[in-house]
């Protein structure tokens, strides 16, 4: 065998290295553009279809840009059912769930991250194990508990099972566990209580995690369908997913008007994300859950 002399090897020229970097960036840019299209195209299609005539939905060839913009689809859709009440119900439920998740998950995460007590690891494992149980598994037992409290067809019946989430506890714990204990010990020496430590020292360093938790909890409760369907039978307490399904099942409602309601339903989530976007961008590093 012929040995390779290291002195014969020459490194790539600067021009070649520059070309390779440009090629890698170009490939990455193309992949990102393709991924963006996968997420954006359905939303764009939904928005454009909300301005189409009803019969356009059933054409074999999709007409992306309406030839005639039917702005009347929006008032027509809103007039066919009490969607204002449905959106109000969803807003009340989602805001309450978001606030309670932020409060309770923060408290639980702080306790699991900064306090060591017998069985703390087992308790965390039990909390995480609940994430493996889908809602369908606990649906009947949860309904029986809510029925025992006589909370059927009430706001508290919709909200109660959603007040705290295992993922939120885990997210807040992982965010707080990396905060040095020296800050906490110094505050205790200065006479600060645990609540003051949490509010003035821990939470300012966990704003990205709080923002992510707020968005996730709001979105999950805003889109919740199965549980409200189980505990609500009165029309004045229906949330918008229930109203949208009923609206779609009613004979004679154009599918373009269903797109109208779907477009309006996405606005609150987009607004919340826009408000918390800066904190969310800082929190992308939390995806590693260090």
Kindly describe this structure.
With 290 residues, the protein is mainly alpha-helical. The protein has one domain (77-288): MetI-like fold, CATH 1.10.3720.10. It contains 13 helices and no strands. It has helices at 14-49, 73-79, 83-114, 120-129, 135-148, 155-159, 166-176, 181-189, 194-202, 207-222, 226-231, 240-249, 255-282. The two termini are 49 Å apart. Mean pLDDT is 85; it is low at 286-290.
CATH topology: MetI-like fold
Q: What gap, in angstroms, lies between the N and C termini?
A: 49 Å
Number of domains: 1
What Rg, in angstroms, do the CA atoms define?
26 Å
Would you list the SSEs in sequence order as H and E?
A: HHHHHHHHHHHHH
Show the helix and strand layout.
Blueprint: H1 14-49, H2 73-79, H3 83-114, H4 120-129, H5 135-148, H6 155-159, H7 166-176, H8 181-189, H9 194-202, H10 207-222, H11 226-231, H12 240-249, H13 255-282
Helix pairs in contact: 1-13, 2-13, 3-7, 3-10, 3-12, 7-10, 8-9, 10-13, 12-13
């Amino acid at each position: 065998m012929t040995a390779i002399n290291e002195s014969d090897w020459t490194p790539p020229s600067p021009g070649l290295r520059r070309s390779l970097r440009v090629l890698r960036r170009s490939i990455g840019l193309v992949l990102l553009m393709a991924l963006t299209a996968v997420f954006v195209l359905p939303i764009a299609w939904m928005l454009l279809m909300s301005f189409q005539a009803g019969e356009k939905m059933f054409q074999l060839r999709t007409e992306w840009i309406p030839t005639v913009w039917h702005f009347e689809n929006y008032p027509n859709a809103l007039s066919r059912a009490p969607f204002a009440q449905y959106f109000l119900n969803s807003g009340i439920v989602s805001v309450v769930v978001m606030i309670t998740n932020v409060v309770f998950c923060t408290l639980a995460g702080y306790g699991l991250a900064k306090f060591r007590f017998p069985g703390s690891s087992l308790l965390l494992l039990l909390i995480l194990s609940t994430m493996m149980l889908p809602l369908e598994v606990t649906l009947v037992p949860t309904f029986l508990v809510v029925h025992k409290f006589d909370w059927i067809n009430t706001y508290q019946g919709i909200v109660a099972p959603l007040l705290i989430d295992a993922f939120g506890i885990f997210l807040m714990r992982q965010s707080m566990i990396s905060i040095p204990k020296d800050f906490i010990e110094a505050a205790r020496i200065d006479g600060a209580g645990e609540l003051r430590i949490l509010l003035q020292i821990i939470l300012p360093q966990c704003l990205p995690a709080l923002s992510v938790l707020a968005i996730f909890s709001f979105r999950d409760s805003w889109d919740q369908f199965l549980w409200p369907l189980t505990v609500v039978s009165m029309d004045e307490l229906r949330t918008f997913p229930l109203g949208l399904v009923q609206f779609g099942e009613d004979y004679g409602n154009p599918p373009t008007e269903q797109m109208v309601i779907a477009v309006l339903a996405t606005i609150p989530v987009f607004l919340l994300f826009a408000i918390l976007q800066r904190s969310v961008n800082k929190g992308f590093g939390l995806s590693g859950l260090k």
